[in-house]
């Protein structure tokens, strides 16, 4: 029972990747990475648009809540509540304490809010400029000193694109939100 002193050699082909296969894989990874990076940058701008819309909604709700709570500005309670003025083509909007006429006056400003650089107000369904005023004690909503419109739609747009965000204010229900 002698075994063959020569060990058996199993012949296997060379395993591994060729240079061409490596170049193809690296090229594919590079293409996928560049596409993902480009989408990430655009996605970041879209997030800026969504955040700007949510900030405007938040400030509208702030004006509504300040009217409900009768917040005092400069030692007096505003007779007409609080409001927001928006204007097409603008990159700002104003939060103001109304004197009772339900229209924005330059001396009523509480806060001038700037939108991010790449965002602008592109459309307002009730005309431009538009004043949305919340009148106490029930925070009745007046749009341009009137209650004839049931809702107002404000559109923010990412400059240089067709991406928009709609803010909807329903005068009857008092609901404020984005679409």
Structural overview:
It is built from 1 helix and 9 strands; from the N terminus they run αβββββββββ. It has 179 residues and is α+β, with helices and mostly antiparallel strands. It has a single domain (21-178), classed as minor pseudopilin epsh fold. A 5-stranded antiparallel beta sheet has the order 3-2-1-5-6, covered by helices on one side. A hairpin with a 4-residue loop joins strand 5 (130-135) and strand 6 (140-143). The longest helix is centred in the first third of the chain and has 51 residues, at 19-69.
Q: Briefly, what is this?
A:
This protein is α+β, with helices and mostly antiparallel strands and 179 residues long.
SSE layout:
Layout: H1 19-69, E1 82-86, E2 92-97, E3 109-114, E4 119-124, E5 130-135, E6 140-143, E7 151-158, E8 164-170, E9 176-178
Antiparallel strand pairs: 1-2, 1-5, 2-3, 4-7, 5-6, 7-8, 8-9
Mean pLDDT: 87
What are the low-pLDDT stretches, counting only 5+ consecutive residues below 50? none
Provide a count of the helices: 1
Instruction: Determine the N-to-C terminus distance.
Output: 87 Å
Widest sheet: strand ordering? 3-2-1-5-6
Q: What fraction of residues sit in β-strands? A: 25-35%
Q: What name does the CATH topology carry?
A: minor pseudopilin epsh fold
Structural class: alpha+beta
Work out the radius of gyration.
30 Å
Shape: rod-shaped
Give the tally of structural domains. 1
* Helix-strand sequence: HEEEEEEEEE
């Amino acid at each position: 029972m002698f075994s063959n002193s020569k060990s058996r050699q199993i012949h296997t082909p060379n395993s591994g990747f060729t240079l061409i296969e490596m170049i193809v894989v690296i090229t594919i990874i590079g293409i996928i990475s560049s596409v993902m990076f480009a989408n990430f940058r655009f996605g970041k701008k879209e997030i800026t648009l969504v955040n700007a819309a949510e900030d405007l909604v938040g400030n509208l709700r702030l004006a509504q809540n300040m009217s409900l709570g009768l917040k005092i500005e400069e030692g007096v309670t505003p007779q007409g509540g609080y409001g927001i003025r928006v204007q097409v083509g603008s990159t700002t909007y104003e939060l103001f304490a109304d004197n009772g006429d339900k229209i924005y006056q330059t001396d009523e400003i509480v806060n001038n809010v700037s939108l991010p650089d790449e965002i602008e107000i592109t459309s307002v369904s009730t005309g431009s400029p538009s004043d949305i005023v919340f009148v106490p004690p029930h925070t009745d909503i007046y749009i341009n000193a009137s209650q004839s419109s049931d809702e107002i739609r404000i559109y923010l747009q990412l400059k240089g694109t067709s991406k928009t965000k709609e803010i909807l204010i329903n005068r009857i229900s008092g609901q404020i939100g984005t679409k």
